[in-house]
Amino acid sequence: MKPPSVVRIYSTAQEPNYHSPWNCESPSHTTGSGVVLASGQILTGAHVVADATFLQAQKVSDPDKYTARVIAICHDSDLALLEVIDPKFQSDITAATLGPLPNLQDRVSVIGYPVGGEEISITEGVVSRVEVQVYSHSQRRLLAVTVDAAINDGNSGGPVVRDNKVVGIAFQSLSDAENIGEMVPTPVIRQFLEGISSGKEPALPDLGIAIQTLENPVLRRKLGLRPGDSGVRVAHVAFGSSCDGHLLPGDALLSIEGLPIANNGTVSFRGRFRTRLSVVLSERWIGDSIDLVVLREGREIATRVTLCRQVRLVPQCRYDVEPSYFIYGGLVLQPLTRNYLQTWTKWRDKAPKAFVTAYYSGHRTEERQQMVVVSQVLADELNIGYVQLYDDSVAAINDVVPRDLAHAVALLRERRTGLVQIRMSSGSVAVFDAQEVAKADAKIMATYHIPQPSSRPFRR
After folding, report:
1. Which of 236, 280, 315, 385 is positioned for an S-S bond with 210, CB 3.0–4.6 A?
2. pLDDT digits over 178-190, tens only?
C-alpha cells in the first residue's frame, strides 16, 4: 500500500483587531500541511486555515499551486476540510485511509512540510501517551496522542501514519519539552468527518460544570459516599449549559455514560487508557444525549442530558467571526473574551487582574452571561474626564446590571432623553446626556475614521 498523498497548504489570513474591533490586522502568510482523503478533499488542522482569506494547496509531484477553500471546520477539535475545484488536482493522488487509535509504544511517522525547506519531511517517533490534553487552538480538553517526534511550524496539519494508514493529524508541540508533539487521534477525526457528512453543527459539546476531586476521605464522607464509591463533586453549573437543570452544586457525579468516575476525575477510556472524564465528549456532537449518575443528599439519581455547545462567562478564542462592539459617547464596549485578553503581551501577567480572574474563575449565571468591558475611550468633548475609564467592566447602566452586550446596547438605546449613567466595577461613573450623545456620534466616527458605531448585530 502506498503512503497517502500529503500536500502543502499556503494560507493568507487576516485576524480581527480586538483592541480596535472595527479594524483587522495586516494580512499574514503561513504554510501548513494536509492529507488527501478518498473524497478528494484535504484534511488539515483548523489552526492552519483559521481567519483565512485565500488558500492554495500544492502536491509533492506538482510545482503548481491550486486554489482551495474551506468547506467544513471545527475549531474545537482543530480540524478542517478543504476542497480544490480544479479537477487536475485529483490526478496522481493516493487517498488516505484512517487507521485505529494507536497503542502505547507504537512507532509512527509524522509527514509534512516544516519551515526551512521545500521538500516533504518524514520524522519517526513512538506513541508515549494517550490521554485528554488541552488543544492550544481552542483551549478545549480533548483526547490527544503524544509522540516523541518533533512537530514544527509547517508540519502542523499533516498526517501521522502507521502502516501507511493515518492515525492522527499533527497539531501542536510541547513548548517545555524537546521533540515532543501531539496529534488529533482518529476517534476525534472520525467524529468530525461523520458529523460533517450528516449535517451536524461543527462544534463539540461541553458539560458546563466545574468539578472538584474527591480524594479527601472526609469530603467524600460529608457527601454521603460509601466505602468503595468514587466520583467528583460538582462545584458549579453554568447557566444554559448541558447540565443546567440536571445537576446541582454539591452533587457527587459518580458515572458518565456508564463509566465509573475515579476520585481524581478520571475514567477508563476503551478499557486501555485512564484519562479525564471529558474524554467522553471527544466522540459526541451537540444534540447527542449522555447518561449521568449523581449522588444527591444520600440518594443516587440517574439523569440523561442533551449536550449543547460550550457556554462561558468569558469565551475562549474565537475564529472566523467579527468581534462584537458598540460605541456610546466615545466609550468602546465589547464582551470580554480571550481574544481581547490576548491584545496584551503576556496577558496572564499584564492584563487587568479582574479580567484574568474572570477568564479562569468567572461563572456564567442567568443574571450575567457576558462580562461587558470598556476597551478604550475615544477622546471627545463629550467624555472629558472619562478617558481613564478604559480596561474596566460595566457594573450597571442606569442601575440595571447588563446581562450581556446585547442587553447593554438595549439599555443605552432605550434612554433617548435625559441622563444615562454607566457605572464601572471600579466604582467610577460616566454620565451622559442622551441627546448630546446622539448628536456627537457621527462626529466621533468621522474623527477616528470608524466606519460603523457598532458591529453587525447591533446596526440599525
Report:
1. 236
2. 678 899 999 999 9
